[in-house]
Amino acid sequence: MKLLEPVRIGRHLLKNRIVMAPLARARGDERRAPKDIVGTYYSQRATAGLIVTEACHVSPTSATRARATANHDAHQTLAWKQVVDAVHAAGGVIFQQIYHVGRKSLLSGMPNGQVPVAPSAIAAYGGIMKEDGLEEFPVPRALALHEIAPIVEDHRQAVRRAGEAGFDGVEILAGNGFLIDQFLRDSTNKRTDSYGGSKENRARFLFEVVDAAIAELGADRVGVRLSPHFRADHIDDSDPVGTFSYVVSELDRRGIAFIHLLEGTSYDNSGDIPLYQRLVKKPSAGGGGAGPRSGEPFLAPILRPLFRGALILNSGYTRDSAEQAVRSGAADAISFGRLYISNPDLPERFRLNAPLTEPDTATYYTNGPEGYIDYPSLGDRVAQVPAA
Ligand SMILES: Cc1cc2nc3c(=O)[nH]c(=O)nc-3n(C[C@H](O)[C@H](O)[C@H](O)COP(=O)(O)O)c2cc1C
Questions:
Q1: Are 329 and 277 spatial neighbours (Cβ–Cβ below 8 Å)?
Q2: Are 270 and 282 in contact (CB under 8 A)?
C-alpha cells in the first residue's frame, strides 16, 4: 500500500502517510494539563506517520469544556513534555495543535467573568453539552484593534512552549469555526479596520499567527488546518474559492510544512461532537457537515496546485478511499479521526486489512481511562487467546 510508504513532510521523514487527526478528548487535569493517561494514549498510537494532538488552548480566555487541555503555563508545558517523551520513546512524530476558540468560549469557563472575544459581536449557533445540560455560546465582544496583537502573542508563546516541550512541530487550527476561522470568513467578521473587509484583511490575523510560529520553530515545522466547508455553528463565507485560494497561496509563499484540509463528505459534526449536539441542522437543511453544499465545488483539487508543501486530507476516509487519494496524487497523506479513537494500531490493521473497532461515542469526553487507553491493538488480542 502506498499509504504505508514513507513521505517527507517539512523537516520530518514520516514512516507512513497515515496521520492521527486532532481529537479533543478532555483528559486534562483541573489546571488544563494532560493527565498521565494522555502519554499512554498517544504512545499507543505512535505507529502513525504523524500524530496531531487534540486542540490545545493558547490562553485562559479560550475556554470550552472543563478538562480540555491547554499550553499556556509552565505546569501544562511540563506535562506535555512527558507526553512527547513517551511518544518519542515509542518512535512517533508528534505535532501539537493549538487554537483560540474565540466566540466559542463558554461564559462559565472565562476567567474573572470576562466575556469571550471575537472579530465581531456575533454569537456562534449551538453550544457545549455539559453534565447539567447544554451551555449555549454567548454573544461575544468584538476585539478592539489594540487587543489583537496580544492574542497573536499568546499563539507565539504557545508555539514556544510546544518547542520547549519537545514537540516536532505545531499545527495551527485555522478551521472548525474557531477564532482564526472567525476572522477569515465574512459571516463572522464584520470589522471595518485592517482585520476586516477584504480577504487580505480577514487573513491578516492568520498570517500574523503563522509568521510568529515560523519565527519560533521554522516554516518546516509548522502546519495549518483549514476547513473551508465547515458551517456547523453557522460560520460561512460568501466566496470560499476566493478566500481560501488566497490563503493557500500565501501559505505556500511562506513555505510551511503542510496544509491539513478537512473536506469530507461523510462526516457530520452534529452526530459526533456534543459541541454542536442537537442544535445543528443536518447539511441537507443548510447547516453542519464538513463537505461542500450543493453547487459548491470541493476545494482540494482547486487548492492543491497552489501549494507546494504536503497536503493532508481528512474526513470520512476509509482504508480504500485513503489509498486511492494518495495513489491518485490528490493527497500526500490522509488523517483519520474516529478510527484512531478505537484502533491504536491503525497502520497495522490497514496493512493486514484486519477488522476495525467502532469507537464508543459515550466516552469521547469522559476524562477517565475508559474508552481512551483500553482499545486493544491486534497484538493484544492475540496475546489474550488462551494457549491450546
Ligand atoms: C471526539 C472528536 C474530537 C475532535 N477534536 C478535534 C480537535 O481538537 N481539533 C480539530 O481540528 N478537529 C477535531 N475533531 C475533528 C477530527 O479531527 C476529524 O476532522 C473528524 O473526526 C473527521 O475525520 P474522520 O472522518 O476520520 O473521523 C474532532 C472530532 C471528534 C470525533
A1: no
A2: yes
Does 388 fall in a domain? no
- CA 383, CA 387: separation in Å to the nearest integer? 9
Residue 386 domain flag: no
- Can you give the residue range of the structural domain that contains 222? 2-377
210 Cβ below 6 A of ligand 1: no
User: How many CA atoms does the CB half-sphere of 346 hold within 13 Å?
Assistant: 32
| In-domain check, residue 81 | yes
**How far away, in angstroms, is 336 Cα from ligand 1 center?**
8
Residue of 18, 19, 23 to test ligand 1 pocket, by largest number of atoms within 8 Å of CB: 23
Distance (Å) of CA 237 to CA 67, 124, 229, 296: 32, 14, 9, 12
Asked whether residue 275 is assigned to any structural domain, the reply reads yes
Contacts of 18 (CB under 8 A, 6+ apart): 3, 4, 48, 49, 322, 333, 334, 335, 336, 346, 347, 350
162: cell is 510546544
List the CATH number of the domain containing 124: 3.20.20.70
Per residue in 90-149, pLDDT tens?
999 999 999 999 999 999 999 999 999 999 999 999 898 888 888 999 999 999 999 999
How many independent structural domains does the chain possess?
Answer: 1
3-state secondary structure of 50: strand
- Does residue 34 sit in helix, strand or coil? strand
| DSSP 8-class letter at 28 | B
Quick one: average pLDDT of 20-45?
Answer: 98
**Residue type at 154?**
D
Ligand 1 atom 3: residue of nearest CA: 23
Distant-in-sequence, close-in-space partners of 307: CB < 8 Å, separation ≥ 6: 248, 249, 251, 252, 259
